[in-house]
Amino acid sequence: MSRIAYVNGRYVPQRHASVNVEDRGYQFGDGIYEVVHLYGGRFVDEDRHLDRLERSLREIRLPMPLSRQALSHVLLEVARRNRVTEGLLYMQVTRGVARRDHPFPAEPVAPALVVTVKRIKPYPRSIDGWGGDAITLPDLRWARRDIKSLNLLPNVLARQAAREQGAIEAILYEEESGFVTEGAATTFWIVDEAGRIRTRPLSHDILPGCTRGALMAELRQAAISYDETPFTLEDLARAREAFITSATSFVKPILRIDGRPVGDGAPGPVTRRLFDIFSRHVTGALKNAA
């Protein structure tokens, strides 16, 4: 069956889907995107993703392309038409089509909306075999990383560098301070040498991860403490455990960083417990709320 995409009000075969060459997303990266996990026919943390979409759009002064209710209908319809119940949905909103010029179009144009979905492998039943290695790289991205924009070239280069070294993620850090920011496409966490779960606090420096927020809500529900405190590469080198979170990684252990094992080089007890907690969140055994 041909995959179906939603493009500016029309459901079309994806192989025929196209956007105008003067779409500002194509020419300037002037837009926002979201990726949502679809499990059992429902979107995991849909409200969190739509909240973040709306926030990012506000930050770049771009209106929602549809009402929230209408957008939710489109997302479900794309999944339905593609007969996908376990997958990843991608949505992208740009400032639309206008003559190429850096400032916003002098005359308002309609935002452009594209939605696609693809099947993925089933949610992992076990943490064993789910982890991977990472490398560290200087964070070369722009200063507003809290906006989920289309400008991903530094992320692309970091992920490619990781792949070339047999790793699944690049852990980014500030060159001057040595403080870790996040993964190239994930939130990064450690269990430090004192046993504390730590991740960087929200600011313009990192993306407010939806999986990050959902996991924190589950930790509070389970009365498991965590610290939103910065940590350095030196702290990372002494960490007992490390893991990443995202809509595609869920809770994924990092076993080696720059060729050195984290802890004993196997998923640790804290990461195992958090993987189990988040698995129940995804599958619906725990409340899956925004």
Q: Notable features of this structure?
A:
globular; D-amino Acid Aminotransferase, Chain A, domain 2; 2 domains; 7 helices; single chain; D-amino Acid Aminotransferase, Chain A, domain 1
- Number of distinct helices: 7
Calculate the mean pLDDT score and round it. Answer: 96
Question: Which descriptor suits the 3D outline?
Answer: globular
The portion of residues forming beta strands comes to 25-35%
Structural class by secondary-structure content: alpha+beta
Q: Give a quick account of the main beta sheet: strands, pairing sense, barrel closure.
A: 9 strands, mixed
By DSSP, the count of extended strands is 15
Which stretches are low in confidence, meaning pLDDT under 50 for 5 or more residues running?
A: none
Kindly describe this structure.
The chain has two domains: 4-119, Aminotransferase class 4, branched-chain amino acid transferase, N-terminal domain (D-amino Acid Aminotransferase, Chain A, domain 1), CATH 3.30.470.10; 132-283, D-amino Acid Aminotransferase, Chain A, domain 2 (Alpha-Beta Barrel). Helices cover 27% and strands 27% of the residues. The chain is built from seven helices and 15 strands. Strands 7, 8, 9, 10, 11, 12, 13, 14 and 15 form a nine-stranded mixed β-sheet that branches. The protein is globular, with a radius of gyration of 19 Å. It starts with a strand and ends in a 7-residue tail after the last helix. The model has no long low-confidence stretch (mean pLDDT 96).
